[in-house]
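look at this stuff:

>
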Amino acid sequence: MNEKQIAENFRASYATGYVLNTLNVGTTRNQGVEVSLDFTPVKSKKLTWTSQINFNHMWNEVISLPGNVPEFYISDSWVYANARGGLVTGGPTTSITSFGYSRNNKGDLLINPTTGLPISDGAFKVHGDRNPDFTLGWTNSLKFKNFTLSFLLDSKVGGDIFNATEMYLTIAGLSKRTDDRYTPRVIKGVLNDGLQNSATPTVNNIAIVPAYNQAFYTTAMPEEEFIQKDVNWVRLRELTFKYTFPANVYRRLRSVTSLSAFVTGNDLFMFSNYLGADPAVNANTAGTRGVGAWGFDYGNTPTPISINLGFKVGF
């Protein structure tokens, strides 16, 4: 466990004689558990199977921010619309803060009694956490005579993603969710008519057709709608097949001590519940401050499948 202060640059008054200065503006706490297990399931004269499992679980919390600062956010994570990597006291450092739906005290959507559309709250609130519940890696190597097969399975359980690409496509009318835009519907919720927090709120019964009301896919569908919860994946991160040549093949090459041929495939398959292209997303670079912009998907290119062939020579 460790606690760290948030150091932030700010523009100072010219009367101080400085343009920029740095201030400790808050405190965060980070904790984690990592377990690694190495074992050999099979070991014989001809076959050897070695395996390693690595488990990681991290959690964090914003302990304090200055009294007049309700939210501290990473500007480099604010790549599209009103969603960003924000820090709120008591929440995780990996929060997604965004505009969301207005709701009554029972959690029902508030519906505009004039238009029949949901009402956006127009405020940055915590609507997601990018931090996964845990990650798991499983590395294996099977060696039979001169042949070796090795692979790495990588999995992530939990963690939320803001799919800005889907939001952009929805506004442009190119998302699959807009295919039924000519179908009438009644949005489940209660009318914002003054009775929304009473014992008998007015249930919405106003039918709308999205194709005839552009606001349905824009102002009435805030960023909260595009934050996918609990994204999981399992992917074959690497698969390698190698053949090690016997010494009599290269004995005439005096400086060569070993020779092998291999074929390696990367990211050959992935299983995920993510609705976008690839859940391993980062809307910015590794140089982004703080926890960065991972978990924000805006036009990200999915990880490509690659296959490499080669020889390995030892001297």
Notes: Helices lie at 164-171, 247-250. The chain has a mean pLDDT of 92. Residues 2-314 form one domain.
